[in-house]
Write the C-alpha cells for this entry.
Amino acid sequence: MSAVANRSIVAATRAVSPAIANCELSHLPRVPIDFAKASAQHAAYERALEQLGCTVHQLPAPADMPDSVFIEDTAVMLQEIALIMRPGAESRRRETGDVEDWIKHQRLLGRIEPPGTMDGGDVLVAGRAIFVGASSRTNADGVDQLGRLVEYFGYTLNVVEVRGCLHLKSAVTAITDDTLLINPAQVPVDVFAGYELVHVDPDEPAAANIVRVGEQLLYSAGFPRTLERIARLSIPVIPVDVSELAKAEGAVTCCSLIFEP
Ligand code: CIR
C-alpha cells in the first residue's frame, strides 16, 4: 500500500449531526438510526481515509442540519476551482455556508446560483470528463451553469439520466480515470463508451459507489460480491462498515470531499 504517496491529499469530512434521524429520504423507508453507531462508523471511515494517507479535516456538525455529514453534496473540488453547490433539497441548502467558509481558503470559488440546483453527488469527475446526473436534486438550470463553469477550464460535460436511485454517483463512480464501477440498471451504459466498466453484482444494486484516493480505494463492506469483482483489478481497497449511514441514504463518497491542496 502506498499511503505515503497520498499524504498531500486532503479529505474534508463533517461529523454526524445529532439530528441525523430527520434526514431526507427519497428511496428508502425511514427506520431508526443509532446516532452513536453512525458516529462510530463515521470515525472508522475517517481512520480509513488516514490509512490511505489523507489528511482529514473535520468540520463541525450543526444540530439543525440532519444531512450535513454528507458533505460531498455541498461542493465539487476540481484542480482549478471549487464549485459550491445549491442542494436540491431545500432542507440542505444551509449546509453550504460553513463548507464555503473553509473551502474559500483552498480554491478559487464558483457557485450554482438560483434557480439552479445541484447536489455534489450528481457530479462524477473522471480525468477531464465530467458527468452530471439529471436526478431529482439537479435541475436543467444547474446543469447549464455547471457547463459554463467547467467548460472554461477545458472539461467536457455529459448529462446522464438517472433511474431509481438518488444521485448519479449512487449508480456510477470512478475507480480510476479510465475504469468505472457501474449499475447498468440505473444509468445508460452507452454514455460511458470508451471506459472499462466494472458492473455491480446484480444482487447488490446499491454497490456502485466507491471512493478513490490516488491509486487506492475505500469501499462499503456491505457489498461482498461486488468487492470480489473490484479485487480482481489488484488495486488496494479498504472496506468500511457504513450500514448505519446507509439508512440515511448515504454511501461512501458522500462523506468526504477529497482533493489535493
Ligand atoms: C439526502 O437525501 O440528501 C441524504 N439523506 C443522503 C445524501 C447522500 N449523498 C450522496 O449520496 N452524495
Summary: The mean pLDDT is 96. Helices lie at 35-51, 96-103, 140-151, 168-171, 224-231, 243-246. The pocket of citrulline is lined by residues 23-24, 26, 67, 70, 72-73, 89, 92, 121, 166-167, 169-170, 248-251, 254 (CB under 6 Å). The first strand starts at residue 10 and ends at 14.
